[in-house]
Design brief:
The structure is a single chain. By secondary structure, the protein is α+β, with helices and mostly antiparallel strands. Helix content is 44%, strand content 26%. The longest helix has 15 residues, at 63-77.
Length: 126
């Protein structure tokens, strides 16, 4: 059973009007055992007799592919250790906003060795 009926109806209309191969890229479906899957549907008209249209096509389960694509996207834009957004996502967000400001990113190697003396000094003052 197809959940997204609007997509399906548009797909059938497109197939009927264009009389060619039609593609429905991502459709959420529920299987008989009530499992949610994502499928890709392709179809073409084989024969048309009056108002009746006979088609043939394929329905391909692309759930695993979509899951892997989402995981790759997550890994590309987040830090694996902390789960926080990484510099790549931050840079892309800045490019979209295009602010009228300057930003300096400072990468300090061995940050811990720099902070220990400062922390010890602050500790003595407190």
């Amino acid at each position: 059973m197809i959940d997204d009926r609007l997509k399906w109806n548009q797909f059938v209309r497109n197939l009927a009007t264009n009389h060619s191969i039609a593609l429905l890229p991502k459709v959420d479906m529920v299987t008989r055992d009530e499992k949610n899957i994502i499928v890709e549907v392709t179809s073409q008209i084989v024969e048309q007799v009056g108002e009746e249209i006979f088609t043939e096509g394929t329905i391909t389960d692309i759930t695993n592919r979509i899951t892997i694509e989402n995981e790759l996207h997550r890994l590309a834009f987040t830090d694996v250790l902390t789960g926080l957004n990484n510099r790549r996502l931050f840079t892309e967000a800045l490019e979209q906003i295009q602010p009228k400001m300057a930003l300096a990113l400072i990468d300090i190697d061995d940050f811990k060795s720099l902070m220990i003396p400062i922390a010890m000094t602050l500790e003595t003052w407190l």
